[in-house]
What does this fold into?
Amino acid sequence: MPLRPYDQTCSIARTLELIGERWTLLILRDVLLGNRRFEDLQRTTGAASNILTDRLNTLVEHGILRRVPLEERPDRFEYRPTRAGAELSHVLQALMQWGDRHTAGPEGPPRVIVHTACGHATEPVHACAHCGEPLEPDEVEIHPGPGATPEIAAAGVLPRR
Amino acid sequence: MPLRPYDQTCSIARTLELIGERWTLLILRDVLLGNRRFEDLQRTTGAASNILTDRLNTLVEHGILRRVPLEERPDRFEYRPTRAGAELSHVLQALMQWGDRHTAGPEGPPRVIVHTACGHATEPVHACAHCGEPLEPDEVEIHPGPGATPEIAAAGVLPRR
DNA sequence: ACGCCTCGCTTGCAAAACGCAAGTCAGAAG
DNA sequence: CTTCTGACTTGCGTTTTGCAAGCGAGGCGT
It folds into this structure.
């Protein structure tokens, strides 16, 4: 019996089915940092080669990476992020930001994000798409959406304070 | 032999060591939605009870949740997010947003985020903390930070285009 | 021409993690 | 005093992972 997917009508669960396995997000981190070849990924992620093969295939299968031939004779490839893959950088940035705040020692974060356009080291700020104000964790409500299941609809607006 | 942690000087890897296991992010999702009791979490996440116990203990151990007695006789508890736990909502929002865009069917997303302050359904926009402009995936560079290892420092600015 | 190297995997095996069902234990509730 | 509920714990069989070794296609050195 294979390990079941989470099998939930929830965008978080559905996303985790694609990228939630051990090593997958580290692989994506490195691909988005420009580390795109099998051997380099093996070294920088630390994942075993059979696992790396499996994860790369899954990511290609789901349109998050593309396997691109670099040269023929000898055959060499690289794994490039698709548009969808590149959009996962928001997830990685959120993980990095939390880690910077809560797991970094006194020496500070190992890497910083620089906004190319303005040239400054920055942190991603999560703002409301409608009014532009910062979106704090306690200033949002989750409402059932158009694709809600009856259970989600029945739960109504969350969290109930 | 226990499964090794990722053991990397990287905020993403260090964060994933705390919350990267199967079920952990779904548990956090539900706790942040207000589902805070063992039995409810078992039902809404679908995780087996031994796994749920293990994950909750790990989260409490790392200061992401607190185990709060609700009533004595009979003993009942709830798991509440700490400040650090609440900040993980940015990670969950990023996962949800990606899932909404890339895994939702024609019926649309199952849940939507409403910004309480302005009252509108919204999406979190990732903006530059310095200049306020939207932070697109291809408009950032990753530089070595103060806590960089020699290897990270040697890699320099990434990605090299 | 022959061995040796590199890259990108695949295979085999033991160890660890997981899923499920059942059991435990303290305290109501009937 | 039996049953029920919440929050776990235990046992057992399956699945996944980590590690080491091997493979095969194509250079490269001599």
The longest helix of chain A spans residues 89-102.
